[in-house]
């Protein structure tokens, strides 16, 4: 930025001087706008279908959305105490934390280490994955405890953020890999013994207390400090939500004879919404993403929203406009780097959307550095508009999920705790989501812009760390109180 002086305030939200853009490029922009815009009527239609699919997921027959009971059966009261380990196996990183829930209401201390999840492991062998995870946990314990051999077994909350069937809180039968993972021999199996075997092989002193999903952790951690929190969401590498249901409204658990008003957190796994492709406005680019993914036909909703796919959508658009259209963007340039699938992540779109310069200087530099391409100004304008359309569509579609749970549960006002890289870092994601919620739920205009929306999506507490520790604490509390459903195997009930 040398020589350009201080950054001017962003003078506009949209693309620069569309009037400078040649007609053929303008036509392409209009085409993208047609493909990617989700208007109010469509948002409402998607939400309506979403509500019925949430119900279907809870029914005995089931549907596309798994609606997994989690055996998390209460909110914390703020007086949970103890020291717990939490392991977060997300889509991108691995994190190990030690959390102490202190005597002070809703207070905690945390120490943590982050480890990269190597790309090869995501598509490698099962044993290598568990061995790597156990190594990270081991390393963490050895770094933070002097004499590991004298250590009592620490209770661990394992945040395993993939769809898993849980008959008990300490099991997780992987339904299918999501977020680009593809490791043979794990789907259909309980991952807990695999993880425990890897730990035992290293002599790591740990007792798994609970396996949780990141959304459930987010819900519980957020409710710990804000009692208005009713939904926990992740908008990150993947996209999903959890909320508290009553056992009596979960027909597929009827055989357990739980009290009808007993709370039960449900991990929706809403990424699988509309796998039948009935309502989502999929573009040809979405179809390519799906076909080329390790699990075609799965996670239809997630593939239009989550961070893992936003960069790929933009890349596919650009390659298409280079190869197949009359416009031939980036003509006579070497686009070999751009041809590599998943070469762009959502931070590339964030940077484009955040470029404050009228001439899209930063975007131009980014293309240069990352892709070896020198776009013309009109091409930069097109790319900027494409990024806006992709980011806006993601935010608006995700609002359909939040609206659907709110309608289903008749929540007129509440807080929704959200976490994940897209929610925390993608520019305008929150505002765009809030605008879509307003359109779906027909809220009147605010009198004062500072006023809260009836349903407000807020940055969550750390679900996979503190949430996991809280769930481990709540589980131990339940054991002490003798409420063992979802903890003990029925044959062990006396
Ligand atoms: C994917 C996973 C889900 C997780 C979400 C966010 O959708 O299937 O379990 O909650 O990503 O990480």
Automatic annotation (TrEMBL):
Keyword line: ATP-binding, Glycolysis, Kinase, Nucleotide-binding, Transferase
Hexokinase C-terminal domain location: 230-474
Pfam families from the UniProt entry: Hexokinase_1, Hexokinase_2
SUPFAM superfamilies linked: Actin-like ATPase domain (SSF53067)
Catalytic activity of the protein: a D-hexose + ATP = a D-hexose 6-phosphate + ADP + H(+); D-fructose + ATP = D-fructose 6-phosphate + ADP + H(+)
Molecular functions per Gene Ontology: hexokinase activity
InterPro entries per record: ATPase_NBD (IPR043129), Hexokinase (IPR001312), Hexokinase_BS (IPR019807), Hexokinase_C (IPR022673), Hexokinase_N (IPR022672)
Pathway info: Carbohydrate metabolism; hexose metabolism; Carbohydrate degradation; glycolysis; D-glyceraldehyde 3-phosphate and glycerone phosphate from D-glucose: step 1/4
Gene3D superfamilies: 1.10.287.1250, 3.30.420.40, 3.40.367.20
Ranges of Pro residues composition bias in the record: 1-11
Domain Hexokinase N-terminal: 29-224
Similarity section: Belongs to the hexokinase family.
Protein name: Phosphotransferase
